[in-house]
């Protein structure tokens, strides 16, 4: 097979349905057992309103910034994952917390809410590809190999919020901390101090946030960082490399933010007069290094809101948020940084039919898609989350 230019055309890749075929382990579920309303039902908005009104104070709906507009409309509060988990914890009277976000966020909400509260994720297939890149077995094996190399006892784990409860619990068991994209600098400084001279940090699961925080925010050398590849023996590293490194970065990334490119930053600067580029720290280091501003979703929102009218922005984060920002701040000129980046596919699993199904089921007295973290995992994960809350100057507001 050739293209019109005569060059060989690459063989077509088979479409891989999430959670099926070779991808079995990467998603936590792809089916909804319930009787979902038809997406074409013109009464969906009314049904969602009616179900929410019927539940009243018994339900609290959380909406992550990357959710669709049709879902955000029904959120009692919007925010990033940490803000939403704290909001859930601050509503002890809500019997049900419906989390419009992804699986790890619902787990964190379950860990931080009271025993008698139930967290519901409207679609169990709303996972996170980054969180799925660090499985607990792989992380435990890594730790054993660090121990064999003689470095585990001098290593402190720092785990990004975007991780499974099991990985958070691993972090708690080994005296580490959770971090968010806003407090990663504080968390990393704490962990490096705790590790002491010659000590190390194992940063999970987002290599880009770890590298950007270490090199950009703390101004430390990139050469101190190595990447642990869980699919290679000994992480693909030699014992010498491990001993010499300060930052052991897990080989994980966000499948959305990892796609923003240097070429897109250069194109924005070329095509949009006076543009400022603002990106999320989950972007690759070379993209972050070229940006004018770097920050979490909450910080991106605050920065744009505070900018003088007429400022031009090219924004490198999830498209749903960028489109809402453009609508919310028409006095700014807001562009999406990269034309080849799509919505987060798992965030977008939560749609109005799933939300209606989850709410109407609660009205009928049926809890669907409850997210429950077992007690032991919850206890250690909570220790790591509490450590984050105890960090000096912890704001948690980004
Ligand atoms: S945007 Fe990235 S980190 Fe966030 S849920 Fe989607 S894949 Fe995960």
What is this structure, in a nutshell?
Catalyzes the condensation of iminoaspartate with dihydroxyacetone phosphate to form quinolinate. This protein is of the alpha/beta class.
Biggest sheet overview:
5 strands, parallel
Under CATH, the homologous superfamily of the largest domain reads: NadA-like
Report the order of strands and helices.
Answer: HEHEHEHEHHEHEHEHEHEHEHEHEHEHH
As a percent range, the share of strand residues is 5-15%
* Overall SS class: alpha/beta
InterPro entries: NadA, NadA_sf, Quinolinate_synth_A_type3
GO biological process, one term: 'de novo' NAD+ biosynthetic process from L-aspartate
Keywords: 4Fe-4S, Cytoplasm, Iron, Iron-sulfur, Metal-binding, Pyridine nucleotide biosynthesis, Transferase
Protein name: Quinolinate synthase
Describe this structure in words.
This protein is α/β, with parallel strands linked by helices. It has 3 domains: 21-128 and 346-372, Rossmann fold, CATH 3.40.50.10800; 131-254, 3-Layer(aba) Sandwich (Rossmann fold); 257-336, 3-Layer(aba) Sandwich (Rossmann fold), CATH 3.40.50.10800. The chain is built from 16 helices and 13 strands. It has helices at 44-55, 69-72, 81-89, 103-112, 129-132, 136-148, 165-173, 184-195, 207-217, 239-244, 262-271, 285-290, 297-306, 319-328, 352-363, 375-389, and strands at residues 59-64, 77-79, 96-100, 118-120, 155-160, 177-179, 200-204, 225-228, 247-250, 276-279, 293-294, 312-316, 333-336. The strands form 3 sheets. A 5-stranded parallel sheet has the order 6-5-7-9-8, with helices on both faces. Helix 7 packs across helix 16 (375-389). The longest helix has 15 residues, at 375-389. It starts with 43 loop residues before the first helix and ends in a 9-residue tail after the last helix. The model is unreliable at 1-6 and 8-29 (pLDDT under 50). Bound molecules: iron/sulfur cluster (SF4). Iron/sulfur cluster (SF4) is lined by residues 66, 102, 128-130, 162, 254-256, 318, 344, 346-347.
């Amino acid at each position: 097979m050739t293209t019109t230019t005569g060059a060989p055309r690459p063989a077509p890749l088979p479409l891989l349905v999430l959670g099926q075929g070779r991808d079995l382990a990467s998603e936590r579920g792809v089916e909804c057992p319930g009787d979902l309303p038809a997406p074409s039902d013109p009464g969906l908005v009314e049904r969602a309103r009616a179900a929410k009104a019927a539940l009243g104070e018994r339900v609290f709906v959380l909406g992550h910034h990357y959710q669709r507009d049709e879902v955000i409309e029904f959120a009692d509060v919007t925010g990033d994952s940490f803000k939403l988990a704290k909001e859930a914890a601050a509503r002890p009277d809500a019997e049900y917390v419906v989390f419009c976000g992804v699986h790890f966020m619902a787990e964190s909400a379950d860990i931080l809410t009271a025993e008698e509260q139930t967290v519901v994720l409207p679609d169990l297939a709303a996972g996170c590809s980054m969180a799925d890149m660090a499985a607990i077995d792989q992380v435990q094996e890594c730790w054993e190999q660090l121990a064999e190399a003689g470095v585990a006892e001098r290593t402190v784990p720092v785990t990004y919020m975007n991780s499974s409860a099991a990985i958070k619990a691993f972090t708690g068991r080994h005296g580490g901390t959770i971090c968010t994209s806003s407090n990663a600098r504080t968390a990393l400084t704490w962990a490096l101090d705790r590790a002491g001279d010659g000590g190390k940090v194992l940063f999970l699961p987002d290599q880009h946030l770890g590298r950007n925080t270490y090199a950009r925010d703390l101004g430390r050398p990139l050469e101190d960082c190595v990447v642990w590849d869980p699919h290679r023996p000994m992480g693909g590293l030699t014992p010498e490399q491990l001993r010499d490194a300060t930052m052991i970065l897990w080989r994980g990334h966000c499948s959305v933010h990892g796609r923003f490119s240097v070429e897109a930053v250069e194109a924005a600067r070329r095509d949009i007069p006076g543009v400022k580029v603002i990106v999320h720290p989950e972007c690759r280091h070379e993209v972050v290094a070229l940006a004018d501003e770097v920050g979490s979703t909450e910080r991106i929102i605050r920065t744009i809101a505070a900018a003088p009218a007429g400022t031009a922005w090219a924004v490198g984060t999830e498209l749903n948020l960028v489109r809402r920002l453009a609508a919310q701040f028409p006095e700014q000129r807001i562009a999406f940084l990269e034309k080849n980046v799509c919505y987060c596919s798992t965030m977008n699993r939560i749609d109005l039919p799933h939300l209606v199904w989850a709410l109407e089921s609660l009205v009928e007295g049926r809890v669907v898609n409850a997210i429950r973290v077992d007690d032991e995992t919850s206890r250690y994960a909570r220790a790591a989350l509490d450590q984050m809350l105890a960090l000096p100057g912890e704001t948690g507001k980004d």
